[in-house]
Specification:
The chain is an alpha+beta fold. Helix 3 packs parallel to helix 9 (180-187) and helix 3 (63-73) packs across helix 10. It is elongated.
Length: 722
């Protein structure tokens, strides 16, 4: 082998490979580094990488760690020219006895050459090329430079490349803080990172550590006492990390997908710093509130809580939320009261995505009272999404697209297109206000029948309560979410006008100019629909939603920087009127649950046919928040799961936490073009003794306020064509 390398290799190899152009790559080598994603408070929320690598200069790598690597991998590193004849002889005899290549005799320089420039095949030709490149590396670089390259490049298991990444991955500390035992553990990995991985095979890792310590003592790096103490140290690893914590997993993946389209593979190897608009505290609150809300919805669907008290033993047909205690083959096991419960995992559900502690739904199909065991059949959970923006800037403050990203990677906040139902009614009302209508306008909530074009079918929409309310003000129509009054209003406005107005609010989802628009009969993502309310919350100013503040590279050069982009979407007078109407939904309408919040809030519930979707989109003075719940298969949720009963409790819990951390904002003053007038609530006219009903202060654009006093209750038969 020596003759081949130094004879034939020098004769043919050096003449052919003399310049080794790939070594210029090593001179300019910049290893792939980790891209980090941060919340707005600089909290790290995610890391993106092809190779988990954190390069460090040799000066920051402690001598003891260097000695550990040299002792086990290449004790004569500072003495040989890149190829060790002594080690080659040793490997030659081992290979000769085995009749095949079982030992390489590679120096650290040869290992570096193999990792950077060669394939892992074990052939004589590749070994010759490895030796030739190693000799050239030694000619062009100092020993310290080579060792630094090596310690930052070598693969050390669990996705970690280089000693700093390994120290962080296994022990949660920088290389400068490693103990002797920890340094020896890492140094034992290059030979076979999987075989000696302390997470996978701790016993082998400890045995390998002992060998590293023994070699360090034999070459004089440590004393026997140090060796004994380190060899007896327990193996203490930090828990295995994941790319993003559960609270931010949907947001982190949303950012990754978005930037991957823009930066491609550079996103994973260029060590970018990505600063997002995420409010981490709000994100945690949002995720927790969604989990709690979905658990409550499933309970109302009839699935008893996992932690709930049971007054009787389980029976056939009982429905339960089961906390996973164990996953055994293709089945889930847990306990329900005193009974052991088993639930077969259905096809299509990834067993690898399930974990102990997850909640799953099941219905009892078999009871063995003697053995105290139950068999359950699988049921799907309700899902949800929540999105929050700063209405003044459009900055995304929170986003969660489901209950468990590990199990359900479909992001319902940005990818699910669902019908908004009655939550679209404020758009219709705002369009009417733009055209000169007032909140006191009388609308007719009476039966409506229209034959659908091209069919023999008649469309007969109904109210949620199946009642008709006759002449009502626009305010009452939106507070009580009256379908028929809104449909008749849209019929007067013309659907095309409403579609054009919706575009002014930022809706890009395709809208058809049909009367069913009044009922939100189109599909849109929660992200886009929540942003639609921004002008209502921000005095008529629209803001382009954005989620990334700044992206810099490893040299701190700014690659991308975003600032708020705002524009006048609707007049401030109209925005104030809508804000007032939506506040009435909270104080006197379908969202009374939010009335207990200690600050101004406004919003609108949304419910679609057969309780398939439930929404609440609402805002305070400094946050706009949208919540959607429903089933992925678009089936009904059951139990009359309306926006007020299913989505609003989640919204209220999130907003309660948000408001508790902030001083109350002063009441918003009406813009100059608004006049506040006391009116009779029923007629929309000025109060008079003839109409002794309730009164309220209403907001009018100057010149549209009523001048007539109430004389009698309006019949309104001709106002909107019956």
């Amino acid at each position: 082998m020596i003759a081949l390398i130094l004879g034939g290799g020098a004769g043919t190899g050096f003449s052919y490979f003399y310049n080794f152009p790939e070594l210029e790559y090593l001179r300019n080598y910049r290893p792939s580094t980790i891209t980090r994603v941060y919340a707005r408070d600089s909290r790290l929320i995610s890391e993106l990488f092809q190779e988990r690598r954190v390069p460090v200069p040799l000066s920051r790598i402690p001598v003891q760690l260097r000695q550990a690597f040299l002792a086990i991998e290449d004790a004569r590193f500072y003495k040989h020219p890149g190829v060790s004849t002594r080690d080659i002889f040793r490997a030659f005899w081992s290979n000769l006895r085995a009749g095949r290549l079982v030992q390489g005799g590679s120096t650290i320089t040869q290992q570096l050459a193999k990792v950077l420039f060669l394939t892992p095949e074990r052939t004589l030709a590749r070994k010759i090329r490895e030796a030739l490149i190693a000799l050239q590396i030694e000619r062009r670089f100092t020993k310290d430079e080579i060792l630094e390259f090596y310690l930052n490049q070598i693969y050390l298991g669990s996705g970690a490349y280089g000693v700093e990444a390994a120290a962080l991955s296994y022990f949660g500390k920088s290389v400068g803080k490693l103990t002797l035992a920890e340094a020896a553990t890492i140094a034992g990995l290059p030979k076979a990172p999987s075989r000696f991985n302390p997470r996978i095979r701790p016993a082998r890792a400890i045995k390998r550590r002992r060998l590293v310590l023994q070699r360090m003592r034999e070459v004089g790096n440590i004393t026997r006492e140090q060796e004994t103490a380190a060899a007896g140290s327990p193996l203490r690893l930090i828990p295995r990390s994941i790319d993003a914590s559960p609270e931010v997993a949907y947001f982190a993946e949303y950012i990754r997908r978005k930037l991957s389209q823009r930066y491609g593979s550079a996103l994973y190897r260029s060590g970018l710093t990505i600063r997002t608009t995420l409010d981490f505290a709000l994100q945690k609150t949002t995720h927790a509130a969604l989990l709690k809300g979905i658990e409550e919805i499933n309970h109302r669907r009839g699935f008893l809580r996992a932690s709930g008290k049971r007054k009787r033993p389980p029976r056939l047909g009982d429905k339960h939320q089961l906390l996973i205690a164990e996953i055994d083959g293709g089945a889930i096991r847990g306990t329900i009261g005193d009974f052991e419960a088993a639930l077969k995992i259905p096809k299509g559900e990834s067993i690898h995505a399930l974990r102990e502690g997850d909640l799953v739904l099941g219905r009892v199909i078999k009871v063995d009272r003697d053995a105290k065991s139950l068999q359950l059949e699988w049921h799907d959970t309700v899902q949800g999404a929540a999105v929050a923006f700063d209405p003044r800037t459009g900055a995304l403050r929170a986003l969660t697209g489901g209950t468990n990203f590990r199990r359900f990677q479909f992001n319902r906040a940005t990818q699910a297109k669902r019908s908004p139902g009655s939550a679209f009614k404020p758009v219709i009302m705002a369009a009417a206000l733009m055209m000169g209508y007032t909140p006191a306008q009388i609308l007719m909530d009476t039966p409506f029948v229209r034959r659908m074009p091209g069919t023999l079918k008649a469309w007969k929409p109904r109210n949620y309560t199946n009642k008709f309310y006759g002449p009502v003000t626009m305010r009452l129509a939106i507070e009580k979410s009256l379908n028929l009054a809104t449909i008749k209003l849209l019929d007067h406005l013309k659907p095309k006008a409403a579609v054009e107005f919706a575009k002014r609010l930022g809706i890009s989802a395709p809208l058809q100019p049909y009367l069913s628009l009044a009922l939100g009969a189109f599909e849109i993502t929660p992200y886009e629909f929540t942003a639609t309310y921004i002008p209502f919350a921000a005095g008529g100013i629209g803001a382009r939603p954005y989620d990334i503040e700044k992206i810099t590279d490893g040299s701190q050069r700014v690659l991308e920087e975003n600032v708020p982009q705002t524009h006048r979407a609707i007049p401030p007078e109209v925005a104030y009127q809508v804000r007032s109407l939506l506040h009435g939904v909270v104080t006197d309408g379908t969202a009374k649950l939010a009335k207990k919040l200690p600050a101004f809030v406004a919003g609108k519930t949304g419910t679609t046919n057969e309780y398939r979707d439930a929404w609440f989109i609402g805002f305070s003075d400094n946050l706009i928040l949208g919540v959607w719940v429903g089933r992925d298969d678009n089936r009904q949720m059951g139990f009359r799961a309306s926006g007020g009963s299913a989505a609003l409790p989640i919204w209220t819990n999130i907003m309660k936490s948000w408001l508790a951390r902030r001083a109350p904002a002063p009441p918003a003053a009406p813009p100059p073009g608004i006049t506040l007038v006391k009116i009779d609530q029923a007629s929309g006219l000025l109060p008079s003794p003839e109409c002794p009903g309730r009164t309220r202060i209403e907001a009018f654009v100057q010149g549209t306020e009523p001048t007539e006093k109430c004389r009698q209750k309006p019949t309104g038969e001709d106002l909107f064509g019956g």
